[in-house]
Every structure is written in C-alpha cells, then in structure tokens.
Specification:
By secondary structure, this protein is mainly alpha-helical. The chain is built from 17 helices and no strands. The chain folds into two domains: 1-180; 245-444, Growth Hormone, Chain: A, CATH 1.20.1250. 79% of the residues lie in helices and 0% in strands.
Length: 445
C-alpha cells in the first residue's frame, strides 16, 4: 500500500496538466460531437452547457461554503460522472447534455480549488510540485492520444478522459493533510445578487456561444440591449445599495482584465485565425495557450520585476497580434504574459486578508469569469458595429465562416478593423490600470 502511494506521489505532473487541460480538452470532444451530427442544435447543447456551467458555476458557490480540499475531489468526481454519461452519448443525446453540464461544472470548480490547495500545501507543508518538463511531456502524450481517439470513437474518448480523471483523483489523494485556522468570517452574500449573476451569465454565454456556433445573430442585438439595461441597474445597486465589497475597485478591475485577456486568446484569436487560415488554426492557438501555461512558471521564476515585464509583455504582444505574419508569436507571448500575470494575481490575492484564506482565490476566479463574459460582449459589440458600418460583409457571414471553419477573404479586412479596435480597448484599459497602480496601493492593508 505504501509503495502504491509513493508511486502516485511521483506523478505530480499529472494534476497540473489535467487541471489546466480541463478548460480545453472537453471542448475538443464536444465540438466533434456537434460536427459529427451535421451541426444539429440538439448536438450543440452539450458544448453550450459546458461553456455556460464552466463560466457561471462559481457564482453559485457563493451560497454554500465548502473547504477547497473537499471541493477539489468533488469537482473531479463530477467530471468522472460526466465522462460516465458521455459513454452513452450514442444512445441518446440527452446523456450528452448531462455530460457537457457536469464537465463544465468540473472545469469551473477544479482550477480555483486546485490552485488554492496547492498554495496551502506549499505554505503549510512545504509541498513541492512537479517538474514543468515532465508536465510538458505528459501534455503532449495526453493530447496526441485524445485527438487520435476523438477521430476513432466518442465512447473510447470519454473512457480515456474518465480514466485520467480517476488517476488525477488518486494523485491528489496523496497530498499531505493540513489545517487552516480561519479568523475572518465568510461573507454573507446576497442570494438574489448571486442568482442574478448566475442566470445573467449563463444565458449571456448561451446566446453568444450558440449564435457563434450556428453562424447566426438571432438574439445578439436583443442581448446587447438587455445587458445595457442590466449593467445600469447593477451599477446603481453596486454603488448605492450593496454592502462594502471585499476588493477595491482597482483590484477587481485587474482581475476582470485578466479574464478578458484569456477569453480574447481562446475566443477572438481562434475566430480571427480560423477565418483567415482555416480549421487548423484552432488547434495551433489552443496548443500555444496550453504550452504557455506549462512553461510560464519556469519563465516567471527568472523575472524579478514582474509588474514591468507584464506591462511591456502585454504591449509587445498587442503589437505582434496587429500583424498577420507575427500573429502566432503574439498569441504565444500574450499567453505567457497573461499566465505570469495570473500567477502574480494569485499570489497577491492569496495573501490579501479580505476573505477567509480558503476562499480568496475562488473570489478572484469569479471576477475572472466576469471578465470573460465582458470580453465576449465587447467582442460581439465591436463585430456588430464594424460589420454594420463597413457594408462589406455581415456578422452572420463571419459567424457562418467561423462555424463551418471556412476561409473568407471578404471578412479579413473587417476582422482586421475589429482586431485593432479590441486591441486598442485593451491598451486603453491597461493605461488606466497602470496609472491607477502608481497612485493607489493594491492588495495591501
């Protein structure tokens, strides 16, 4: 028994890859399900439910406290159950809906709980993670096997993912135990506000992702108008009615900005490159993103003044992304910079005594999810405005090209204008955040 435990302890490179990969691997599987069945809406729902629950499940966690060392294995078990339902997807797509929902919950809960547990283990038990080189090797082997199985059998693919999640559960079960003495009470979050955030986020993601995948804009304009009204109402609520927030506005903005950057990489960059260069672009962007997450801790350790490097890295990345020839290099540098930025935020939030120690990072990731939703709204609004003013191609044409993974030369100029507009928005926000950081002390009491 002791020998088995030691073997699992030696596999510490597995959690890092699988936890990060659960943001991407189910997407590849569920997209293939949709494409396999001639893009029928019922077969798109597993993917939509994955996106929706992945983005919004942390809002519901506000209502019920659960220690992170319990939430992490719970999230893995949810993913395993999701894979079990996926085994029966050929019998009925309803099993696919359940599988997509459960895998989305798993993905949304796993990353913040795992990150928190690892911070606890390092600070309380001096527990060391694995070599990043081993992680990179495992990521390459796992990805190659998964992509091969996707083309062969959906049942075998879900079985493969489920077995790896069981392996993940076995590895994290070997972590040393710890005890946290909490002196700060858990906040009494408003139930109404929590439910509003969940449902608004859920249906916003559902409509945007659904319209993108189907290549239509049936509900986008109505969604934009509704969101504008809701933002005004929420701003009044935030400023006049709600209690004092845990984080300062600038601190919240920094975390929301990081969520916007990540969503820009995974959503706009894939859309842009796919319409410019075809379906292989999706795999390239996702591979660069996953690779950057694995190697960024090694790079981050060698950087002394991370704040300046992050600012310069973002600006250089934006410049690289503005060119066609250097776009992929821009994706890589932006992914690495964003990952280092995320590490810095994690470190600062974990040490910031505004919440119980066990729940600080999950609050940070909630704000990141809000940033993800905000970016999707900004991206679709920019695309809508640019396409309507250019009269060269409609947003429906762009979404159709993206959905069917087709190159559309008519859309390239319109997409370039949209890209420049979004990058300019990012630069303007970065300037305000940088100036704010120089004037105001953040994450300090």
């Amino acid at each position: 028994m002791e020998n088995i435990k030691k073997r699992f302890e030696s596999l510490q490179f597995i959690p890092f890859v699988l936890v990060n990969g659960m943001n991407l691997f189910p997407i590849f599987i569920l997209v293939h399900v949709f494409l396999q069945h001639n893009r029928e809406f019922s077969y798109l729902l597993p993917l939509l439910f994955f996106y929706c629950f992945k983005t919004t499940i942390l809002f519901l966690i506000r209502l019920k406290t659960l220690p992170m060392k319990k939430l992490l294995p719970v999230s893995i078990v949810i993913g395993i159950i999701g894979c079990v339902f996926g085994l029966f997807i050929n019998q009925s797509i309803i099993f696919g809906w359940i599988a997509g929902s459960l895998l989305g919950m798993c993905s949304g809960l796993m990353f913040p709980s795992y990150t928190t547990v690892m911070f606890h283990e390092r600070s309380l038990n001096e527990f060391k993670g694995s070599s990043q080189l081993y992680s990179l090797g495992y990521a390459l082997v796992f990805s190659a096997a998964l992509f091969k199985l996707i083309d062969v059998s959906m049942v075998e693919t879900f079985l493969f993912l489920g077995l790896n999640l069981i392996l993940l559960y076995s590895v994290i079960s070997t972590y040393p135990d710890y005890t946290i003495d909490e002196t700060i009470p858990y906040p009494n979050y408003s139930t109404i506000e929590t439910l509003v955030l969940f449902f608004v986020g859920f249906f916003t993601v559902f409509i945007i992702k659904g319209d993108k995948k189907l290549g239509v804009t049936n509900f986008l304009i109505s969604l934009m108008l509704i969101m504008l009204v809701l933002l005004v109402i929420y701003f009044v609520y935030y400023k006049k009615i709600t209690r004092q927030r845990q984080f300062k506005p600038l601190e919240s903005a920094l975390m929301i900005y990081k969520g916007m950057l990540t969503n820009f990489i995974l959503v706009f960059c894939t859309l842009y490159q796919m319409i410019n260069h075809g379906k292989s672009s999706l795999m390239i962007v996702y591979s660069l993103y996953l690779t950057s997450i694995i190697i960024s801790p090694m790079i981050g350790k060698k950087i002394k003044n991370k704040q300046h490097v992050i600012v310069y890295g973002l600006v250089i990345s934006f410049l690289l992304l503005s060119t066609h020839q250097l776009f992929y290099i821009g994706v890589l540098t932006l992914s690495i910079t964003t990952s280092i930025y995320n590490q810095q935020l994690n470190q600062a939030v974990y040490q910031y005594p505004v919440l119980p120690r066990d729940f600080r990072l999950i609050a940070k990731y909630r704000l990141g999810n809000i940033g993800s939703i905000v970016h999707q709204l900004v991206m679709m609004a920019v695309l809508l405005i640019v396409t309507n003013t250019s009269h060269k191609v409609s947003l429906d044409n762009i979404l159709h090209s993206y959905s069917f993974k087709e190159i559309d030369t008519k859309a390239i100029e319109v997409l370039d204008v949209s890209k420049y507009s979004i990058l300019m928005i990012f630069i303007v926000i970065l300037v305000f955040l940088y100036r704010g950081q120089k004037k105001e002390a953040i994450f300090s009491k």
